[in-house]
């Protein structure tokens, strides 16, 4: 008798556990969101990094991106072997030092160490939460699940940025991040221990269904083990669609690195307070999160390519225009446009990768995609820091990201078939 005979795929039949996984990714989003505007603010107010110290300011995102990218690569492969729940719990345990390091920081190096632990947390917890929901859902619900996942996570990112900025004004930046961070991390760990189940059996059922579908066509699925190195080479250099999707994942994080590192500095250089800058940046996160409830399901019906390409081009144009306007309303409108562009492309990219991945190795292929995607944090922040350093201007990173988003969208348009889903 099959070990998967007593389980069933679908959002409705697994709703209680999917809700628990949505709560998990919401808490993960709060954990990273608390660093979005307060930490760049600390750079100058607490550690004497003036706005022109672009490389020092960008370094904390570079480190976060490198660590998270590596963890995404390893986590997907490890979860296929050891299950999702164990890695989720490990991710929350690794988050505990983050608010403590920020609170007790004696130098900017302490903040960099906090970003190491934050990258470990995000790489494990966000990946495991998404993989678990994909395990539980039907194959036809990948876009919807990605939409729900990213809505929950990135709405939390925007909300946490604004809340912690407000708390920082009331109680101090370090105190705000300590209290907020410990509550969120403690709740995430508690729920992971007591409410979350491991969904690996549902993943195995997906593979059984896939094998049966191929058998009906007279095809077979190889049971030979595939190394992570082989999958990495295949997804990065050999499969045309995955090549395009992986580069797209890398470049789209340029926008998020821009918002994280340079947008707060730019807005505060335009006489905006920390709370005002946080409110504008929160618009980006909340629109991004909420709109994915629409764009994720639409990609299941309309196909992936149009939404991905349109999202890239909308983000690119918004980035180019952001430094040309001079009013709160214009910045808010462009932040919303960036957020909607990200909503068009972000869950759709993940669903497109899942489309072309065999269920047996889907978590690993998604882990490779998320490696390249979050490597974009490091690559983007480093390139923008170098560009800002040599031009001595905070404007040029916005131009750079805008052009890269336009070119990346063009690559996807050429590589993917129309209405590909």
Automatic annotation (TrEMBL):
Membrane topology summary: Multi-pass membrane protein
GO CC annotation, single: plasma membrane
Keyword Ribonucleoprotein annotated: no
Protein origin, superkingdom: Bacteria
Molecular function terms from GO: transmembrane transporter activity
Domain Major facilitator superfamily (MFS) profile: 17-420
SUPFAM superfamilies named among the record's database cross-references: MFS general substrate transporter
Record field: transmembrane: 21-43, 49-75, 87-104, 110-130, 151-171, 177-197, 250-268, 274-294, 306-325, 331-354, 375-391, 397-416
InterPro entries hit by this protein: MFS (IPR011701), MFS_dom (IPR020846), MFS_trans_sf (IPR036259), MFS_Transporters (IPR050171), Sugar_transporter_CS (IPR005829)
Compartments reported by the entry: Cell membrane
Keywords: Cell membrane, Membrane, Transmembrane, Transmembrane helix, Transport
PANTHER family: INTEGRAL MEMBRANE TRANSPORT PROTEIN, RESISTANCE PROTEIN MDTM, PUTATIVE-RELATED-RELATED
Descriptive protein name: MFS transporter
